[in-house]
Amino acid sequence: MKLLPLVPAMLAALLLGGCIAPTADDENAADSAEEDLTSAFKYTCHADYGSNKTKILDLTVGKTTAKAVAADPGELSLPLKYSYVPDYKPNKPAYQNKAKYKFDDGSGHVTVVLVDKAMRTGGEKLSGGAHGGKVIIEGPGVSKGLVPLFCYR
Fold it and tell me: How far apart are CA 84 and CA 33, in angstroms?
């Protein structure tokens, strides 16, 4: 049988099969994903219910922090800066696609901002060319403890 001369070539193929050089597209995709998480994206947010589309806040979402600035601080009293919680494990099915940022004032009062995960990298593409997603803010400075928002940029 003449398989013996093919053995070194087959062995080399097996050993080097996973060592294919990345293409320019692979490298660009990796660079793009890394850039997205090192950038911050500023969104305008309004209520995610009813017909009132009044701006409630501006939300800037970055890799490790989020920043919320209420349009009317008298209506919505929020901390300014939130820290990303990388090990967040949602306990509600509706929160499975959310990333969590939180602010703890040190006295047990925690305010949480849950954003669609895609918002960390620029948001889902929306009709009309905008990008964004849904946000939930929970905490002591929020009316009724929770406010659902729709945010876009």
Answer: 17
Cα–Cα distance measured from residue 115 to residue 28, given in angstroms and rounded to the nearest whole number:
26
Res 72 pLDDT > 80: yes
Closest CA to 141 of 116, 99, 110: 110
Assigned token pair, 91: 């306990």
Strands 110-116 and 81-84: unpaired
| pTM attached to this predicted model | 0.71
pLDDT at 60 over 90: yes
Q: How far is CA 72 from the centre of its chain?
A: 25
- What is the chain's Cα-based Rg? 23
Q: Which of 98, 60, 97 is nearest to 82 (CA)?
A: 60
